[in-house]
Design brief:
The chain is α/β, with parallel strands linked by helices and 260 residues long. It contains eight helices and 13 strands. The strands form two sheets. It has a ten-stranded mixed sheet with strand order 3-2-1-4-5-6-7-11-12-13. Strands 8-9-10 form a three-stranded antiparallel sheet, with no helix packed on it.
Length: 260
């Protein structure tokens, strides 16, 4: 069933909502929708209070490890952690309290997919695919979706297709896919991508990017046949938005559970 999957996006040690396509090394290019006055631990505790399993904590660049640890400590063993995950630190973040680690850029040395690196990450997790999420966040290129790395600024050699999904499914427990061109813009979800993810994925998958109404939860449910979960960020009232109430998303998700 489709669920609301919340997030904690960290940038320079603070919880922020950012226009995804503007993330780069140049601070002058960064467009920030919201900077929270509350610590990351507040949101970890909030998600724990409402039983919102599968929430992801993403470290966008350096300077976020302390905040990430605070979030994980607020709900040990229940939050997913991504951003800078490698074979060298994946196990460490599990030990620090992450339920699962989320990996992207490390799998693409010089922007080319490496199965050896994917196996290396899994080896550090004792080959437990249940502890690994693969992030296939992507950008549109013509009529295709190309996996993007390095804060979504570098295009890789991997296209998001049924074939690439099938290739990767044996190595992970789920997928996280940001539509980077929609991220933070509240301009509407990439409906075509949601439809395809519903058709292609046999494992859980979370879509993020462009959600602007609570009704987008219902839309994603309809488009994907209930197979895709939705993250709502900048539009949420807890992140400074004015079009989606966090409590409404919690209520909607609970209603879906009650219908099972």
């Amino acid at each position: 069933m489709t669920r609301f999957r919340p997030c904690i996006d960290l940038h320079s040690g603070q919880v922020k909502q950012i226009v995804g396509g503007t993330l780069s090394e140049a601070c002058s290019e960064l467009k920030v929708n919201h900077v929270s006055k509350l610590p990351a631990s507040h949101f970890g505790a909030l998600y724990r209070e409402h039983g919102l399993h599968g929430a992801h904590v993403i470290m966008l660049g350096p300077g976020n490890e302390a905040a990430a640890q605070e979030a994980l400590a607020a709900w040990p063993g229940k939050l997913q952690l991504g951003g800078g995950i490698t074979a060298g630190n994946a196990r460490l973040w599990i030990e620090r309290g992450a339920e699962k680690v989320i990996v992207t850029s490390y799998l693409f040395p010089e922007a080319r997919f490496s199965l050896d690196r994917l196996n290396a990450v899994l080896a550090t997790l004792d080959n437990d695919v249940g502890k690994l999420v693969i992030d296939l966040s992507c950008r549109r290129l013509g009529g295709r979706w190309i996996v993007a790395m390095n804060k979504w600024q570098t295009m890789t050699d991997m296209e998001v297709t049924q074939e690439s999904i099938r290739l990767l499914e044996p190595f992970c427990s789920e997928f996280l896919i940001h539509a980077a061109d929609n991220e933070g813009l509240q301009s509407g979800i990439d409906e075509e991508l949601v439809i395809k993810l519903g058709e292609w994925c046999t494992k859980p998958v979370t879509y993020a990017g462009g959600a602007r109404h609570r009704e987008d939860l219902e839309l994603v449910k309809k488009l994907s046949g209930g197979k895709v979960d939705l993250t709502i960020g900048s539009a949420l009232d807890v992140f400074g938005g004015d079009s989606v109430k966090f409590d409404d998303c919690v209520e909607w998700t609970q209603q879906q559970s009650d219908r099972l």
